[in-house]
Specification:
Blueprint lengths: L1 E9 L3 H14 L3 E6 L4 H7 L5 H7 L4 E6 L13 H13 L4 E7 L13 E7 L9 E4 L7 E4 L5 H17 L4 E6 L7 H13 L6 E6 H10 L6 E4 L1 H14 L7 E5 L7 E5 L16 H14 L2 H10 L10 H13 L1
Parallel strand pairs: 1-2, 1-3, 3-12, 5-10, 8-9, 8-10
Antiparallel strand pairs: 4-5, 4-11, 6-7, 11-12
Helix pairs in contact: 1-9, 1-11, 5-6, 7-8, 9-10
Length: about 350
């Protein structure tokens, strides 16, 4: 089946890694009709626009979105902090109801990781609520009496649908273990909602073993004993932090893929590596496309191309030769999936 894919290469190494991801996907047999969209820091600098209404409407007509990276070069003063994150990434998450952020972590070579311990886990992060909704404001800004407030919005619907997704995923995995991570001893309102909902939904999944960790304890366990985790479900802010740590202790940020999913499929879901734009590596051949390739595999799996996605995932269990360039890594995996 042919799929229409919106490709947002974005900034820095984004176009380079998405190019390799599409190469591997097509080598594996995926039939993709792609259209490039110029969005990101460079687009903002040239046009003063982050994401126009017409572009958003056009993006909503595609089967999926594959994004490379967005962000200006370090030290840039032409792109205000947060304008791309809120105006592009968060706007897409809210407009497309991408309420699940799914990030898998798998250690391929423990000898080169920080902890030298294997990791095989998935973090399910609620993706449209919490502290990222933008609730809050500033009072008397720039004075000695300035006040800043930043609220966290948590709804029963938002919390439950994320937790249910995590239980459904845990039920398909060999260990069938799901851990809720929050801070219920201090965040007694949002934490209470999350914990009660978790327990109530757990009663419907008797085959899944459950546990709970405070987020500070989870940070310690991820470093000292990452093998204790299988599937983790958590809120937006905690998930953002935990997944970067999980990337660092598994194989590194260059191997971290992600899916921003609308399980109801009322619009396209978005798939992206989480390594950032890395402007210093543009054109050097040093950009690692692994995470982009795995993100493309997640995209194909979500679209229903299970056999093709499995072929790519299997190929990705083998690391490419040391010193391989960006294109050579793409060729390496492209050749593996073509046979």
């Amino acid at each position: 089946m042919k799929y229409r894919i919106a490709v947002v290469g974005g900034d820095g190494i984004g176009p380079e890694v998405t190019r390799e991801a599409l190469k591997v996907a097509r080598s594996a047999g995926a039939v993709l009709e792609t259209q490039e969209f110029e969005l990101g820091a460079a687009h903002y600098e040239h046009t003063g626009e982050v994401l126009g209404d017409e572009t958003l409407a056009e993006l909503m007509s595609f089967d999926a979105i594959l994004l490379g990276a967005i962000g200006p070069a370090i030290g840039s003063t032409t792109v205000p902090s947060g304008i791309l994150e809120r105006g592009l990434l968060l706007r897409l998450r809210f407009a497309l109801d991408l309420y699940i952020n799914q990030r898998p972590f798998l250690t391929l070579d423990p000898s080169v990781t920080i902890t030298h311990k294997p990791v095989d886990m998935v973090v399910i992060r609620e993706n449209t609520e919490g502290a990222y909704t933008g609730e809050g404001g500033l009072l008397r800004k720039g004075t000695a009496y300035e006040v800043a407030t930043q609220g966290s919005v948590n709804t029963r619907n938002g919390v439950e649908r994320a937790i249910r997704f995590a239980f459904d995923l845990a039920q398909t995995r060999e260990r069938k273990l799901l851990t809720l991570v929050h801070k219920t001893n201090v965040l007694t309102y949002s934490g209470d909602l999350w914990y009660r909902t978790f327990l109530e939904v757990a009663a419907e999944y008797p085959a899944v073993t459950t546990s709970y960790n405070h987020v500070d304890a989870a940070c310690i366990y991820l470093v000292e004993a990452p093998e204790r985790y299988d599937v983790v479900v958590t809120d937006n802010l905690f998930g953002d932090i935990l997944t970067d740590l999980a990337a660092a202790v598994s194989q590194g940020i260059g191997y971290a893929a992600s899916a921003n999913i609308n399980p109801a499929r009322t619009g396209p879901s978005l798939f992206e590596p989480v390594h950032g734009a890395a402007h210093d590596r543009v054109g050097t051949g040093q950009a690692n496309p692994y995470a982009a390739i795995r993100s493309a595999a997640m995209m194909l799996a979500f679209l229903g191309e299970t056999a093709i996605a499995t072929k790519i995932e299997h190929a990705l269990t083998v690391l490419p030769p040391s010193g391989a360039t960006t294109a050579e890594i793409g060729d390496f995996y492209g050749e593996r999936v073509a046979h």
